[in-house]
Specification:
The protein is mostly helical. The protein contains twelve helices and no strands.
Amino acid sequence: MGFTPQLSKRAHLTTALMCSLITIRAFHNDPVLRLVKVNLQMPSKSHAYIAIGHPETAIEELRTHAKHEHHLIRLRVAEHPNSTHDLLRSLADDEHVEIRIAVSEHPDTPNEVLESLLKDANVDVRYALAENPLIPAEMLKQLVDDENAYVSHRAQKTLHSLNSGTTKKLPEAHVGNNPARRHK
């Protein structure tokens, strides 16, 4: 009449896994939770995910992993502080929105790459640019005229924060090597 203990246990594990995946999806920006997602999706690749997060990861290793089949590995490369202009340039064309957003937020992304991301078809990429106080004010002004009202409004708010001095800026050591992106 009732469930067998094995079926009940299996149903419980399935429910727990689904709850875990929902939690991971809701908090995908947390690197620890992303690692759990990597382990669930591809346990053999979690070593690469961890290794790329190390601040002293060699540029050659970043280059190799920038072409990795799994988007979460490429995302770690896009977020890495030592990613070169060439790596950021190539990742700016990635099919995954998360990766293009990470490139838009990287302090060393070249201005010509940011210019191309201003025209990205995905509104989330443009919104990430609109809330980034490190991009040149001229680019924020372009986003004020964006066709999407949310992007436009966010760009206005970022410009206002920069002009009023209420935006917290990163220390010079974290702004990268692109002097055109430093706001006074």
